[in-house]
Design goal:
5-stranded mixed sheet; about 20% helix; globular; about 160 residues; alpha+beta; STM4215-like
């Protein structure tokens, strides 16, 4: 994250990793009770800017029942013990319409969290060292949408 020059490259890398996860894409794309049983999505990149947003904004989420993710780098600061490093959080905001939470043998937001964790927890390439799970918290968007906020700690050279 040296002078923030790598942020755009890193967010693109995150988006590509998300669209490479077929289960994650099915959970976002298919509103059925068994989305993981649906056929593979041939063009997972089509979910970018329709289900996956690389910024803290989504279209009018009350207009349609959907599952959406915002992914951002958040909380960028100098490392407390070493000013040669910056820390930040790679944060995923998982939002699901209340009518889509329940699935066969699981809850959609938790299934999405599982797929994100498989793709990013302990992974190298976006950080000095590996990404570290930081925290997860309930996310209340409005009366129709809720989900979870999941963050991973990122370390970069200052």
């Amino acid at each position: 994250m040296n002078n923030f020059q790598e942020l755009n490259d890193n967010i693109i890398q995150v988006l590509m990793k998300m669209t490479d996860n077929q289960n994650l894409c099915k959970l976002l794309n298919y509103d059925s009770y068994s989305p993981l049983s649906e056929s593979d999505i041939s063009d997972t990149k089509s979910l970018l800017f329709s289900k996956i947003y690389p910024y803290p904004f989504t279209p009018d989420v009350q207009a349609v029942a959907a599952s959406l993710i915002n992914v951002v780098f958040d909380g960028i600061s100098l490392a407390r013990k070493n000013p040669y490093f910056k820390t930040s959080s790679l944060t995923f905001y998982i939002m699901c319409h209340t009518s889509l939470w329940r699935m066969e043998n699981m809850l959609r937001p938790l299934a999405i969290m599982k797929e994100i964790d498989k793709s990013f927890n302990g992974v190298s390439g976006l950080s000095v060292g590996k990404l570290e799970f930081e925290r997860a918290a309930l996310l209340w968007v409005n009366k129709d949408f809720s989900g979870y906020k999941v963050s991973y700690k990122v370390y970069e050279f200052n």
